[in-house]
Amino acid sequence: MPISGRILTFGTLLLCLVGCGPSTAKVSGTVTYNGKPVVWGSVNLRDAKGQTYQAQIQPDGKYLIDQAAWGKHAVMVFSPDPLPPSTGAPRKEALSGALKEKMELRAKWFAIPAKYGDYEKSELNLDVNKNPTVFEITLKD
User: Fold this and answer.
1) Which of 57, 81, 97, 100 has the most crowded CB, counting CB atoms within 10 A?
2) pLDDT in tens, 42-53
């Protein structure tokens, strides 16, 4: 290969390495419903290609998605009961660890309108760009 061809190939490779990095960014914020933090569930993004990105909602309502693709996303918030009905009373030994944490969350949890758990009905949208994005999600009746 002539020297000019090698330089062109090297230049193209270098340009790609510099400019073809990951096209993703962090998305974070707080989820509230009627002014109160949503303490349990997930924030879900879906881009135009159908790729989804998810983050767990923390007890203070905050969430963080480390890598969401740039572009427009539909958003939904899912917050099921953290402690679904059981088939009987829990034994004392079972009241440790994860179950105890879920019982504490259950005391603070409240249901949100079902429309927020559906990409098409939530009416929540987000445009992710190359910068970290703060997206405060304010849910209302």
Assistant:
1) 57
2) 999 999 999 999
DSSP state of 130: S
Residues in CB range of 73: below 8 A, 6 or more apart: 45, 46, 47, 53, 125, 126, 127, 128
Task: Return the closest-CA partner of residue 127 out of 54, 64, 44, 69.
Answer: 69
More confident residue, 114 or 97: 114
Q: Whole-angstrom Cα distance, residue 54 to residue 45? A: 6
Report how far residue 59's alpha carbon sits from residue 39's, in angstroms, rounded to the nearest whole number: 4
Residue 78 C-beta-side C-alpha neighbours within 13 Å: 9
Map out the domains of the chain with their CATH numbers.
21-84+92-139 (2.60.40.10)
